[in-house]
Design goal:
Layout lengths: L7 H9 L4 E4 L5 E5 L5 H12 L7 H17 L5 H14 L2
Antiparallel strand pairs: 1-2
Helix pairs in contact: 3-4
């Protein structure tokens, strides 16, 4: 696989960023994103998650969840993040 090495200046931008950095061609065409390097704490958290996996969902289940959440967002005034989690919990308790 070909490799592109960042300049010191480019690396400074990436490593100092708190989120993704857009990567563009000289024409301005967006090519993708790269993020800052993971911290030791983030790596430890990912390892913990792998060692103690939670429930998994099929693609069909995920799409159904999103559809139900979208319907609630459109039909419920005052829809909140807390309500979203309530709906997800209701969905998950009804699934086999």
């Amino acid at each position: 696989m070909p490799e592109i090495q960042l300049t010191a200046e480019q690396w400074q931008v990436v490593s100092a960023s708190s989120g993704p950095v857009k990567v563009c061609a000289p024409t301005g065409q967006r090519l993708g994103e790269i993020g800052p390097p993971l911290t030791e704490e983030e790596i430890a958290e990912f390892r913990h998650r792998v060692a103690t996996p939670g429930p998994t969902y099929t693609w069909a289940q995920t799409l159904r969840h999103l559809k139900l959440l979208d319907e609630a967002l459109k039909n419920e005034p005052g829809y909140t993040k807390e309500r979203m989690f309530e709906i997800l919990e209701e969905i998950r308790t009804r699934e086999p």
